[in-house]
Amino acid sequence: MWRSVRGLRAGSLTTALVLLAAGCSVHNIPINEPVNQQNAGLMPEQQEPTASYADEFLIMLAFSGGGTRAAAYSFGVLRGLDRYEVPTAEGPRPLLDRIDFVSGVSGGSITAAYFGLKQRGALSDFRERFLLKNVESDALSTSLTPANLVRGLSGGVNDATHLPRWLNQNLFDGATFSAFRARQRPRVWINAADIYNRTPFVFGRTAFSVMCSDLNSYPIADAVAASAAVPIAFAPIVIESYAGKCNAQLPDWAVRARTNPNTPPLLKSFANALASYHDGSMRYVKLLDGGLVDNFGLSGFTIARLSATAAYEPLTPHQAVKLRRALFLVADAGRGVSGNWANTLEGPKGADLVSAAADTAIDASVRASYTAFEQTMEEWRQQLVRWRCGLSADQRKHYGAPARWNCRDVRFFIGRIGFDQLGGQREDYLNKVKTTLQLPQDQVDEVIKAGEDTVANNDLIRRFLNSTGR
């Protein structure tokens, strides 16, 4: 009798929660604004800018997801890189000041955005302003209560009154993407996941232009919150398409990509997503954690290269002629294997099952994205060499080729750094640090130190620096 009553009560509670959730939708109101000119989508400045550098080096950093742990690790990587210099025409300059691109996902997007906003000034206060804060208790609802269960079933426990507002008030000080555009370097990519089209969503001119929306006025905090919006814990961040309210056109490369049967799948899915924003068939873009589709944040550069129509893009011809060395570095603070259920007949179950399924999907996506990135970059290097060596003497002079210029002297250094490169007990300790938005100070400092040490001990970075003639 008691079992039957207990089962009835459990069933009744479940039914009640489902019915309540059905009538209690949780959502975020879109805050992106339409462009204020009919022809804004056709203006040259609405297109993605090329790299900002004007010397022989190209440096790109990509920060993975993983909560405060990832934010602390990528912060340590920045501190580690600041120990080195590269030669320039004006004399040796800190490597940190020469970074051209920084891309971030989830926790890594917080560091990427703050560094893009404050540059080396971020080194002085990011630890205190974010890494040592208990964001979960200050800004989020995390307790397991019936009300939160209902909100989770309704679309997400936390909406825009939570993390975006906290980030805006406590870290980014109301800054919008116009602050990024006012700086020459670095160019910043914040990556989320379009969960309807199942494709990366890069907060940039390309996506906002085709939906007739103004990127400059969009808050950095909301983009970062979208990049870090773990399903269920957060409601999707919503972007509204204002299709038809300006004269924007779908980029030519996107039109070609959609009709070409040989288009790489990543580029085709991204082109199809842009088309759905542009033609009005998708009014609301729902965004969640970028790690769902690319936990390394490499898709932006891969897409930029795959969509290029010239060998030198996304650089200008002048930049491509001067280029000699490129460093592409991924800071990977992803989760290691956890749990001991592999040695038992039972399990995984409960939270372990959900975690294992999510980690499997994320790990598979990062391996695929990294492999595609490596292949795309090597193909680009080869195409650059052919293009440079095919230039006439007049073209070389026009594009600023220096004296005794070697058209083949282009080397790319592509690598990943992570906890596994520290090995032993230290790797085990770091992998056990939680990927939440709150960590004790001793763990924050250990992860920061791990970022510094993986940079100091990395052979790829050492070879890049030696190749610059520093």
Describe the protein.
By secondary structure, this protein is α/β, with parallel strands linked by helices. 45% of the residues lie in helices and 12% in strands. It contains 19 helices and 12 strands. Strands 2, 5, 6, 7, 9, 10, 11 and 12 form an 8-stranded mixed sheet that branches. Helix 11 crosses helix 12 (265-278) and helix 13 packs parallel to helix 15 (351-389). The radius of gyration is 23 Å and the shape is globular.
Helix/strand layout:
Layout: H1 2-22, E1 33-34, E2 57-63, H2 67-81, E3 85-86, E4 93-94, E5 101-105, H3 107-118, H4 122-131, H5 135-139, H6 146-154, H7 163-170, H8 177-181, E6 187-194, E7 199-202, H9 205-210, E8 213-214, H10 220-227, E9 237-240, H11 252-259, H12 265-278, E10 284-289, H13 299-306, H14 317-322, E11 325-332, H15 351-389, H16 393-398, E12 411-418, H17 424-431, H18 441-456, H19 459-467
Parallel strand pairs: 2-5, 2-11, 5-6, 11-12
Antiparallel strand pairs: 1-8, 3-4, 6-7, 6-10, 9-10
Keywords:
single chain; alpha/beta; two-stranded antiparallel sheet; 12% strand
The helix/strand class is: alpha/beta
Shape: globular
Q: Give the biggest sheet.
A: 8 strands, mixed
Integer-rounded radius of gyration = 23 Å
Mean pLDDT: 84
Catalogue the unreliable spans: 1-23, 43-53
Proportion in β-strands: 5-15%
Distance between the termini: 81 Å
Task: Compute the number of helices.
Answer: 19
Helix content: 40-55%
DSSP, total strands:
12
